[in-house]
Write a structure and sequence with these properties.
It is a single chain. The protein is an alpha/beta fold. Helices cover 33% and strands 25% of the residues. It has helices at residues 59-63, 67-73, 119-134, 149-160, 181-191, 195-198, 203-206, 229-233, 235-245, 261-279; strands spanning 3-10, 13-22, 27-35, 44-50, 76-80, 137-147, 165-171, 218-223, 249-254. Helix 4 links the parallel strand 6 (137-147) and strand 7 (165-171).
Length: 281
Amino acid sequence: MLTLIEEHACFGGVQRIYRHDAATLGLPMRFSVYLPPQARTHAVPGLFYLAGLTSTEETFPIKAGAQRYAAQHGIALVSPDTSPRGANLPGEADAWDFGVGAGFYVDATREPWSKHWRMYSYVRDELREAITRNLPVDGERLGIFGHSMGGHGALVLALRNPEIYRSVSAFAPIAAPMRCPWGEKAFSGYLGEDREAWQRYDASELVGKAAAKFEEGILVDQGLADQFLANQLNPDVFEAACKAAGQPLALRRHEGYDHGYFFIQTFVEDHIAHHARVLLK
């Protein structure tokens, strides 16, 4: 059951925030949905956006300016929170890059995180089913994108589930998390020290093993003034992996742009158009 928390008219459609009891996580979760005006008369494609570290379900709809373009194309936008909240685990809020606000879109296997920190399955299964069963969103026409930690999550979910997600893109993703401090901290904390288990959540490891290719290409935008580029993001590693796998990739590098939402605002129109080309066929 979805509980509507708030609703606002926006570019002829509606921007909403919902809460539901998430069985996958064992806790209530909130998510945002933008329904374009076309959703009044028929089911529309859905585009899931996964946000980055410290963000919530409100970050993308407030900061990205994406609703204008979603309304033009007739695509719904869905953005979940970035982690469970309210578990009250010891140390869950001690660091900004681990625990609350930092679910990393994995299914944790290490205690005490394994009971609640199951964002991979939540996004792929429970959230998707809640959206497509209760709202006018076509479950056969879904795409996924995200930013930073969420860009990592979007790439991983798409590469592992091409039968669910027909299109994928990312802004400044953590593209090879096994090779960066953020990823090593999250994976060791949530998954333990077995690096083979980590490979299931590393896009640069997965692209060569994917069951199907995204023939329309993967779109990635990266700012060259991004303060995290040098030691956290590794787009070159992902680029090389895509080339070796024969996966079409448009990796666009932009002088002067940093890691924040002014960067995302600048290029979000291109991303929604990228997904629209696939989802509206």
